[in-house]
Structure formats: C-alpha cells, structure tokens
Amino acid sequence: MAQSTSSVITLNVNGEKRTLPVDHRTTLLDALRERLDLTGTKKGCDQGQCGACTVLIDGRRAVSCLQLAVAAEGREITTIEGLADGDQLHPVQQAFLDLDGFQCGYCTPGQICSALAVIEEHAAGWPSAATTDVRPEAGVPPLTADEIRERMSGNLCRCGAYVSIVQAVARAAGVETAQAAPALPQQGRTEEGTAA
Amino acid sequence: MDFLRPASWEEALAAKAEHPTAVPIAGGTDVMVEINFDHRRPDVLLDLNRIGELQEWEVGEETVRLGASVPYTRIIERLRGELPGLALAGHTVGSPQIRNRGSVGGNLGAASPAGDSHPALLAAGAEVEAVSVRGTRMIPVEEFYTGVKRNCLEADELIRAVHIKKADGPQQFSKVGTRNAMVIAVCAFGLALHPETRTVKTGIGSAAPTPIRARAAEEFLNAALEEAGLWDNGRIIPPSVARQFAELVSGAANPIDDVRGSAAYRRHALGVMARRTLGWTWDEYRGNERSARCA
C-alpha cells in the first residue's frame, strides 16, 4: 500500500485561515517560520527545552517544535505576530519594552507568549511548583517573584535578562513591583553594616 | 511517514490493529524529540488528539480512571486532592509548556525509567487499561514495565486509561535534578501512606532498568510501624527505623553510572529522599499542620 507522506492542511493562525501542503514530519514551528513567513516565533533547541518557540494553541501555551503542523489543524494558533492590536502593543509586550525584559531579543517572543499564559493561568487559580501548599483548599498565593520565576521556567534567556523579565511579567499582571522584586541578597553589606 | 488521525477510539483501535508498527502520539513531548533529531523514523504515526475521551477522567469510589491523554496540568489543577503524589510528580515534569501537553499515558507508552509519573503510580497503586480490537486487559503497573523503554503492550494495543487508587493518606514525591525545570530525573522517589490497610508503598524512578517498588523496605517499615503501634499512637517514627528504611530503599535500586549521575550518588540520594518523604508524610499523618510540599 502506498503511504501518503504529505497532506494539504488549513491552519488557523492569528485569526487567519492559511491553507498549505506539508510533509507530515513538518513541525508547527517550521510551518510557521518557513511556510507562512511568521518568523517571530524562534527556533532554539528544537527539542522542547528552551521555550523560544512558545505559541498559544487554543489559548494554552505550548512549544511549537514538539507539535506536528498536520496535528494542529483545527486548533486556534496565536503567535507573537497576533498579539498587538494594530499599532497598539499588547500590555505584556509594552511591559517587556518599558522594563527592558530582554537583551538580544531572540527568546522574547516565546517569553511574551509564555507570560501571557502565566497571567491567565494564575488568574484561573492554577498552582505552580513554587506554590508551597498545593492542597486544593489552600487556594493560590499571589504572583510573587518566586511564583513568576517558576511559572516562566520553561523559557530560557541566554542573555540572562531574567530580573527584568520577572519585573515585566509582574507589571503586566498588575502586581506591585515591590512585591514581585526578586529577593537578591545584599552583597557584602547587611543592615548592621558588617560583611555578610 | 503516514499520518493517521482517527476521530474515535474504535477507529484508533482498528488503525493500530491494521498498522501494528504505528507509533501513537498524543502530546508529542517525547515522540517529537525523536523525530526532530531523526532518532526514530516511524512509518506510521497515530495521532490520538482527536479522541476526546482520552482527555477525560472519572473519579470513582476507590480509583480515578485517568484518560491516557489527560495533560499533567489538568491533574495538578483538578485531581491533586485524589492523586496528591501524581500531582506533585506532575509539577516536576518538563516545563509549564510541556505539562500542558504531556500525559501519564505518554509516560507509560515511552516507559522510560526516568518518567516522572512512575514512582507516584507505583506508590499509590495503579492498573493500566490496555485495549485492542481483541478486548481489554488490566495490567498492574508493577508488571507493565519490562525493560528500559519497554512495556508489556502488544503491538495492537493502545493505552486507554490508568486506574489509580485514590489517596487514603499522605503521599509525597521527590526528585533530584540539576535544576527545577526541564530536567530528566537523576533519580526520583515516591511514597504513599495507606492508613486503611496500614501499609506503605514506594516507587523508585531512574535508578534501575525499570521503575520499581522497594519491596523489602516496604515490608520492613510495615512491620516496624505495626510492632510499635505507630499507626494508632501517632508517635514519631524512631530515627533508627527511618534510617533502616532509607538503607533498604537504596539497596533496592539497581542504578547505572551515566552523564546525569553516578550509581553511588543515585543510591545515596534515594536513601535521603526516602527518609525525608517518610518524615513529611508521617508528619502529615500525625496531623501536624505541615503543608503538602514538594522536595
């Protein structure tokens, strides 16, 4: 029996229907970048470790490198290109700009898509591994820096812009930055004025 | 590579019977890595994402029937009361993005000794519901793993669900890795107290060719708890008993040296995790206000 190795699929990307033939092995990431010219989504590791290719699929964040394009048919896909409303940036995008939540910018589209989901997941009451008490009756704690760091842990930044990323996510979530500010140790100084 | 997208469970079973070499794919967090890096070239992929019932679960009297494709995110959010050990293990799977897609069915299908859900399943007690066009069989999870990345599924079988015993006491999960997110476990340990049967069950991950229970350690602890009447009097477990339990857990492992850690380190870490998880769960059993925490 002759096997079929490709299919014509219709992807719903950023509210637009795009029809294209794809080899079955094509990942959603490659389809977006190479076939649909949506190069905002980045390829970092191609094995789900770095988060640079994070997009929203039916509103949930997922790494597009571990998703076959052919299996994404019928799902609602949102990429970084679909977040702004014309010239009006999405609040998460604006927060990353205002607080320098990046350096080289390569991981930023994935960081922003992930951050969007972090804010929604937290609002929906999902616990994280930083949530010390995960008993159902305990509720979900506020979006502290620790919570943001844990919830953003699927997105690596090789420039190490994490401090600003955490602040940007906190601002976009409407959390007081003081509350979300990372608790960095005071190097070489304590309140008593002695070396730590 | 042919790509099959059955719209129903019956269609999926028929397709698996017709194409026994077809590789089932749900979240894709394991299979896709192998495809992207050309480690595996399946001639047929069987996409299970259109089958709604695989994403559902039912909470029964004694067990939760967890659909094979229920993502970890759902387990953490909705089932952490019934399946606390699995929810804690789920928190350590990959990253949030991976947890939105990865599932216990996938962990079982891949049968990697490092799969995070295995220790929790072993400790809680679970059966795998394996189905083919020939019928359904229930496989105790202990018997499901047959070797490194091997399970006892027949070529025409698919995992429909996992039936996991609802917690009747505190459960814990602990995992050693180089960072919190995106690590394959160096080794992992799950522990569940079962006050109803006055037994303790364990699960060891990433420290033997397959996930295993530390049976000698369980038997020792069961006898020690019984003898001292600790289930009734709620006293603390004597340190000597905890130490002996930890040593027996270490001894149950059969680890290897690899890039992630040495065999000796794995044995040592397992003992530490065994002692700690026992302390945490026993504290919780004794009614202390200590919260259910991850290691």
TrEMBL record, chain A:
Residues 7-83 form the 2Fe-2S ferredoxin-type domain. Gene3D superfamilies: 3.10.20.30, [2Fe-2S]-binding domain. It comes from the Bacteria. Keywords: Iron, Metal-binding, Oxidoreductase. It holds the Pfam family Fer2_2. The keyword Aminoacyl-tRNA synthetase does not apply. This is 2Fe-2S iron-sulfur cluster-binding protein. It comes from Streptantibioticus ferralitis.
UniProtKB/TrEMBL annotation, chain B:
This is FAD binding domain-containing protein. Residues 1-169 form the FAD-binding PCMH-type domain. It comes from Streptantibioticus ferralitis. Pfam families: CO_deh_flav_C, FAD_binding_5. SMART domains: CO_deh_flav_C. InterPro entries: CO_DH_flav_C (IPR005107), CO_DH_flav_C_dom_sf (IPR036683), Diverse_Substr_Oxidored (IPR051312), FAD-bd_PCMH (IPR016166), FAD-bd_PCMH-like_sf (IPR036318), FAD-bd_PCMH_sub1 (IPR016167), FAD-bd_PCMH_sub2 (IPR016169), Mopterin_DH_FAD-bd (IPR002346). PROSITE patterns: FAD_PCMH. Keywords: FAD, Flavoprotein, Oxidoreductase. The keyword Transcription does not apply. The lineage of its organism: Bacteria, Bacillati, Actinomycetota, Actinomycetes, Kitasatosporales. It comes from the Bacteria.
